[in-house]
Amino acid sequence: AVILNNIGVIQIKLNQFEDSIESFNKAIKSKPDYAEPYFNLGNALRKLGRAKESVDSYETACQINPLFAKAFLYKSLSLKNLGKFEDSIISSKEAIKLKPDYGIAHRHLSSMLTYIKKDDSHLEKMESVYKQELINSEDRIQLAFGLGKAYEDLAEYEKAFNYFEQGNRIYRDTIKYSTEGRERFFSLLKENFDKDFFASYKSLSTQGEKMIFVLGMPRSGTSLVEQILSSHSKVYGAGELRYLKEAVDSSLTGIQGYSFPKNIKLHDPKSFDLLGLNYLKLIEKLGKDKGRLVVDKMPYNFMHIGVISCSLPNAKIILCEREPLDNCFSIYKQKFGIGNDF
């Protein structure tokens, strides 16, 4: 069961979610009282947008191991995604009860609370933990953002900004981000996806008619636009999918030592058709696209508008823009997950 569980974890890291589900189910069948595969099954289901099923899996993990703080937290995350905020708050508090210095659980809880008094019990608890010298940097970062949010609710803006500044400063030391590197990448996109490229590119493909890409900077309104679109019965909001980046990496492989985007003019035009096909196969695996339009709201797809134009020419693209200063400050106040280096 342990080996099967570990195989499933590796499959999740490789974005092989369906295969991972099979591995976790085999592990569960082999050892029904083993909490880990239930927890990891919940993770795989959540990645596939099957939040309701993931809650059941996390709940089973919690029942098997009542001290499994991470399972209570992830159950809370899925419940929040389902709009069940009261239940999500209860589960988040259970995680904190089991692990008082659990920074991410505190920050997650703070996102669902509105602080109206300075002697709020959760605010006091966060401050008490933050003052401890022995908490690790990840917990301290998460707590800083939670405290910043709480003091912003209380209109103590100087104190709020101080916590946001501390959280961002500590987090900056944990990542390798280069503004110059980003500028070089965007310059390469412009140089290679130029007018001459699009003028010479010929494709008979009509793929993508069921896709709507909502993109732009994080915190620019992509979630709201997706919610509005998916309120229609014939539109499915798939969330932030990494599928397009995966399709780019697998279809536009390096040629003659050149990687994307330097290699696009070296590839046969059919490579873009194949890229679009590979992307749509991943969409089909969600099992939500039959008779419906699908919204992919991964903000960073703005980097791949040229790719979308060539590989999924009938797709719709909605670019969300927000006043730059507001957008940047909103990003500054937000602790993003893995893969967001700001």
TrEMBL record:
InterPro entries in the record: P-loop_NTPase, TPR-like_helical_dom_sf, TPR_rpt, Ycf3/AcsC/BcsC/TPR_MFPF
Entry keyword set: Repeat, TPR repeat
PROSITE patterns recorded: TPR
Statement: the UniProt record of this protein carries the keyword Repeat: yes
SUPFAM superfamilies given in the database record: P-loop containing nucleoside triphosphate hydrolases, TPR-like
Pfam families: Sulfotransfer_3, TPR_11, TPR_8
Gene3D superfamilies xrefs: P-loop containing nucleotide triphosphate hydrolases (3.40.50.300), Tetratricopeptide repeat domain (1.25.40.10)
Record protein name field: Uncharacterized protein
Record organism: marine metagenome
